[in-house]
Design a protein that fits this description.
This protein has helices at about 1-15, 35-45, 50-55, 65-75, 80-90, 110-115, 135-145, 155-165, 165-170, 175-190, 195-205, 210-215; strands at about 125, 130-135, 225-230, 235-250, 250-260. It is an alpha+beta fold and about 270 residues long. Strand 1 (about 125) and strand 2 form a beta hairpin. The longest helix has 18 residues, at about 175-190.
Amino acid sequence: MSRSEFAEFLIARRAQLQPEDVGLPAGRRRRTPGLRREEVAALAGVSADYLARLEQGRDTNPSMAVLAALADALRLNEIEKHHFGKLALGIEQKAKCPSAGQAREQVSPTMQAVIDALHPTPAFMLGRWLNLLTGNPAWRDFAEPLGMFNEESHGNFATFVFAHPTAQKTILNWDAAADMAASALRAAATRFPDDPSVQDFITALSRYPEFERRWREHRLTDFRTVVLRIQHPVRGEVEVEVETLDPAADQTVMIWLVDRRQARQPGLRLVNE
């Protein structure tokens, strides 16, 4: 998977750039979107034939210098460069990732104790494809009125974001949540290429256009820190700072720091209040 995804990433990023983005004249209307292969090759200082081999998966061993030049030519930000390097170097391959088998769907007693100890700050743990594994009472108090992990969402954060009929009304800056979920799944799929559960879930989500577009474009954001604006049925509009931790190779802890103005509502307080 890693090399084909590397090739797909190259093609997707080239298609998203316009000539004016890299200081080239717009010229006549183009038959296909984005930069031509020859233009990216020239910007990176490599031959168009070599770039073609990379995009077609016929060359799988680019040097660090070539990677750096391509990253600059494609105008990648730091998050994208990190992902690009992982794909190129094969860091996500099973041989280098002992845990790259089936997802672990059990919460250790230690991690459960940590989640519980964070109360009254809402905190919960997600599995490899963003399915809910556990949460503390503060999280359940906050999330249950939203329907975020109910049967309709199949207990999954990404399914809520992309498939739940109320998600775009519940999360006022829905695009940020959608980018966060898609980026987290991209990281999981890259790190664990041999887990069929992740791949099956991504295939299922691809029937939703907003997810499919983000996935096809290799949309990447810093999904570990984001601010969401929630329209809560009990607390009104609430601003939530989301901090994401990786306590284990295949699990994620999300901590929701609720707006101080809403912290005094019944049933929810900040840690330092």
